[in-house]
Write a structure and sequence with these properties.
- The protein contains eight helices and seven strands.
- By secondary structure, it is of the alpha/beta class.
- The chain folds into two domains: about 130 residues, Rossmann fold (3-Layer(aba) Sandwich), CATH 3.40.50.450; about 160 residues, no CATH class.
- The strands form two sheets. Strands 2-1-3-4-7 form a five-stranded parallel beta sheet, with helices on both faces. A two-stranded antiparallel ribbon has the order 5-6.
- Helix 2 runs parallel beside helix 3, helix 5 packs antiparallel against helix 6 and helix 6 packs antiparallel against helix 8.
């Protein structure tokens, strides 16, 4: 589990002590802490915030007045990361930038969730055990037939996700193929060179924007599907057979020491290929037009 740690430099010693206690709970815990004295700390912070599952804000005495902490909080909000605040002392003030406007009511609400250190420790421990608060009652009290029906319904949403993903791929492939065909059609027309150049610029920009959007959509589908698989795995532990875990074990055994490449990473190569095509075609376009002008 990746956690991004937000804190004031003055609180480094006590924060490091808390992080050390958290690491004892989970060997897979990966605290993402900024290095001191890094000139390009904002770039480093942005990259680490992207990677984290949650951000933990340790509130110190002067944290509320720190512009650097404000930037980190806004960046975590930008990437939609949940923020948990832990006050190192109850008298310390939280950062005012955590107060945002509710999208529906317009009223000021707190973006973060204020918790104690023990609550954070439990959150990390539950994540380590794969406890995502799936069950609303004790396991021994759950009706197995009802659980099976819920499992089948949730499994169907995973299959529907795969179908929607294929439709999205088909849509983007069709649109990008059409843009490449328009490029070829325009090149055959008798037009002023400058008109051709301006049209090629527009088509290139549209194609690249579409391809980037395609990549982001694939990443979102991949993340969502990964989350569904984790939940399915948790539910299967209460059923007679853990089929998906067994399938992954069989795949790992087949791969042996070879690295597994996910569908998402493979699919992302297609929009990347289109981006390369757009850039190459645009460069060739410019070369031919300039030759025609001079």
């Amino acid at each position: 589990m990746n956690i991004f740690v937000i804190h004031s430099g003055a609180d480094t010693e006590v924060v490091e002590k808390h992080i050390g206690e958290l690491k004892k709970l989970s060997y897979s815990l990966n605290p993402l802490v900024l290095r001191n004295g890094n000139v390009f700390w904002k770039h480093e912070a942005a990259q680490k915030i992207k990677k984290c599952q949650i951000a933990i804000f340790f509130v110190g005495e002067n944290s509320h007045a720190s512009p650097n902490i404000e930037w980190e909080i806004h960046t975590a909000m930008k990437y939609g990361k949940p923020i948990y605040t832990v006050k190192l002392d109850e008298s310390f003030r939280s950062h005012p930038s955590l107060i945002v406007r509710d999208a529906y009511s317009g009223l000021p609400v707190s973006y973060d969730k204020e918790v104690t250190f023990d609550m954070i420790a439990k959150l990390i421990s539950d994540h380590e055990k794969g406890d995502y608060k799936i069950f609303n009652q004790d396991i021994d009290k759950i009706n197995s037939s009802v659980l099976l029906e819920q499992y089948k319904a949730f499994l169907q949403t995973s299959e529907d996700l795969v179908s929607r993903r294929q439709n999205v791929n088909s849509f983007y492939i069709s649109v990008n193929s059409a843009l490449v065909a328009i490029f070829s059609f325009i090149s055959a027309l008798e037009m002023e060179p400058l008109y051709k150049l301006s049209t090629s610029v527009i088509l290139t920009m549209v194609g690249i924007i579409l391809s980037v959007s395609w990549i982001k959509t694939l990443i979102s589908y991949g993340d969502l599907n990964s989350s569904k698989m984790k939940i399915i795995s948790c539910i299967e532990k209460q059923l007679p057979a853990s089929l998906y875990d067994a399938e992954w074990a069989a795949l790992s055994d087949k791969l042996n020491k070879r690295k597994y490449v996910s569908f998402t990473n493979n699919e992302k190569n297609i929009p990347l290929l289109f981006i390369v095509i757009y850039i190459c075609v645009f460069i060739l376009y410019v070369i031919f037009i300039l030759k025609g002008l001079f």
